# Entry
Amino acid sequence: MKESPIGTSSGGALEGRRLEGMIVRKVERELYEVFIGPQHPGSGHMRIIVRLDGDVIVEADPDIGYVHRTMEKLSEVREWLKPIPLLERMTIIDACNVTLPYVNALEKLMDKSPPPRASYLRVLLCEINRIASHLYGMGIFGVFLGHSTIYMWAFGDREVFVELAEILTGARLTHTYPIPGGVRRDMPQDFPEMARRAVRYMRRRLEEYRKIFVDNPVIVKRLDGVGVISKSKAAELGIVGPNVRASGIKYDVRLVEPYEVYDELDFEIPVFEEGDSLARTWVRVEEIKQSLNIIEQAVEWLERHKGEHIIPVEDYNKLPKLHKEVYEKTGRVKLLPIHASMKIPPGKALARGEMGRGEIVYYVESDGGTTPYRVRVVTPSARNAMVFKYIIPGHRLMDLPAIYGSIDYFPPESDR
Amino acid sequence: MKPEELAELLKNTLGGLAKEVTLWKGYVEVLVDVDSVAAVASKLKELGFDHVKSVTASDYPKESKIRVTYHVSSYLREDLAKVILGLSVDLPRDNPVMESLTGVWRSSEFQEREVYEFFGVTFRGHPDLRPLLLIPELAEKKVLRKDFIVKEESIYEGVPHRYQ
Amino acid sequence: MNSKAVDRVYVGNINVAARRARELLLGKLRLGDVIDWATTFSLWPVHLLTSCCGAEFAATWSPRFDAEQYGALPWVAPRQTNFIVIEGTVTRKMACALRITYEQMPHPKFVIAMGACALDGGLFYNSYNVVKPWEVVPVDVYIPGCPPPPEALARAIIDLRRRIKEKKLASRWLIEGWRHDRDPVKPVDDVCRWWRP
# Structure
């Protein structure tokens, strides 16, 4: 029996009009606890413990850890190259962006840098994954709001990009594409034409998305002014990604600390000022457009500079004869023999990258052995979990899916 | 701002409180004492560092210490946004207790809960210190310390694990 | 009835009578075949996302692969669905949710375990937080892969369908009250003991 912190609003209506024999009694309001659990179409792989006063949320507590697969501990017992497929499974839909900062941290410790062609191939796959991840987010957002058409459209269009990634790397979702020093495979001959067709198709489709989803009056009514995160609050809570760009702060790791070849490419960072759910959706749609531009530029560079190496020259010289023949003919390098028992000099490194959902930070510590000493990864969803505790209270219960879907929180990534 | 300029700025503002300033690859680390962590954190917040990117801990059983590092950076100041600063504290391994920095940086709340359940470090003054990811039975075992051994099958069978 | 015995009461056993009625209707009069046929064409999975194979689960119901053509519609309430797809790793916290959801579903119910993590732990085999799903719920079909492509999940649904039809799983379950071809699975220790205060 707790007193509601909101306060009784209708206590003063009958103050001056007491009739004969009327008994007036003060009733304390009770808070009602709801578990929006793992088995729920609007919750993802987590439980949200919500305390309600009538229809208004007083407290929302995220109960996460349902997909905690202990990646940090397992990375300590596996050799240096083996955490790459392990860490990929955190955000399986965005696989290149998740593992690229880990590989960058290893390259910083080893003092190696990838050749330019490998950098452009990495950027190409990163942008394909960013588009696929944003479309996944929009589809799931549609399921939360009850708009299943956008779920079908977004997942159908996402298949175009997943198939492009499959042609480039060989796997639909788990690419394992960057390796320390370069990439695993070169681009096939007919890839640029397919990429251009996909880009043209997606540009046409974004117009339709705008008509049916983002400018839909029902969706606008549900999202406009809901879940407003002001600029100072966003900086105080440490929120990342499109959420912070929708609140007026122009922060993107590709702009602040450019990695790979992002400083040579020409793209914009969309920033909106309002900070509500509609602004966050707009940021994602605009980011898809910018990613399409980057894919075009990358593919054009790759076409002009054919026949260059995708692994560093010193690694190429140490390849055995059979591997060299396969590499010359098909452009694939399965596993460099020097990576089999790699030892990295002692030191500490911190590398970060920009995923579809925000900024990911890797802290890698080495003491000179064959396995890492400590790998610490902070994913964007782990930092966005603060939104549940601090932004949601004060809204109504049905605003919870609207806010949850707009921050694009992905529990397997947050639980690691 | 370059890392070397940041190191200079830190030495000037913090003076004697900073025991050691090192430049690693990707961040600048400053090591402080357990008692002066809160004061140093307030000074850094006045300088312009307004959010915490990661709270991490490393276990060194041979030197019997646990090192907790806060990686902080800035959103609102343009020059500080390009560097990352690591604020490190060394704690004794048998009784790791330190002041919580949630009063200074609100964004470290959930990550301090993680360090609590994985390493057993108690943060005094934390508003809500309970396990975040693990079930309570596993959180008592302090899973990420080096004496909790996870066995791995490997082709190097018979080679002793170096923490045993 | 005898005209003399006016104070005799005939008492029957309702359970035995019901069972004989079920055997008659579903066995002899072949209504069981209709029930098997209907169950195979309306296997509705519950909305329970266990882990990262959920991305391929979501893609299977997308326009390219369209598993709704097999009659499978993901539905929100466990009380009105037939089967569970365990996608990916089952952690210790999620095992509690899985068991509670499985127990809430009315029988006849089936389980498909998808992915390498559901077979034997997969990539996380030596982790302290991973539970083998066949120790929590009885599994019918296993799908290897990491993650298995959506065609494999559709193929598994068809395989489950063939099994139900051949072994008459749905009608025999309704007649006898339990599954006739395998023993029930009871978790060794209480998977939810971390939640009970």
Remarks:
- The two ends of chain A are 37 Å apart (CA to CA).
- Residues 225 and 332 of chain A are 51 Å apart (CA to CA).
- Chain A touches chain B at residues 64-65, 68, 70, 72-74, 76-78, 105, 108-109, 231, 234-238, 244, 249, 251, 256-257, 347-352, 359, 361, 363, 365, 369, 373-374, 376, 378, 382-383, 385-386, 415 (CB under 8 Å).
- The longest strand of chain A covers residues 56-63.
